Amino acid sequence: MTTVGSGQTLVISGGQSSGGITVLTSGLLDIRSGGTASGTTLSGGTEYVSGLDSAALVLSGGTEHIFSGGTAIGDVLSGSSFRTLIPGARHLTRRSRAQRKPCSVS
After folding, report:
1. Average pLDDT of the segment spanning 35-57
2. Domain map of the chain by residue range?
3. What is the pTM of this model?
């Protein structure tokens, strides 16, 4: 199990996969195109998804940004967590009580 702490960044590049990552407040997980993460927990941290993210748990204070070409499947958002969807992003969320902030790109 990997923990991404405050001020740290973990990059999952194309062709790489990882599971069970915990991202703490002010930490960043960057899933690049072709990269895969599963079972991630965002506990106040931030996740950039340009690849595939499955079964993430986004807790209060966590933020998930899904970019064009990125896919999030089975993620659970709770409390005051946030998700930003860039046009072209794909997502299937099991339960969402979070605030969604759709964005447009010019």
Report:
1. 95
2. 18-97
3. 0.83
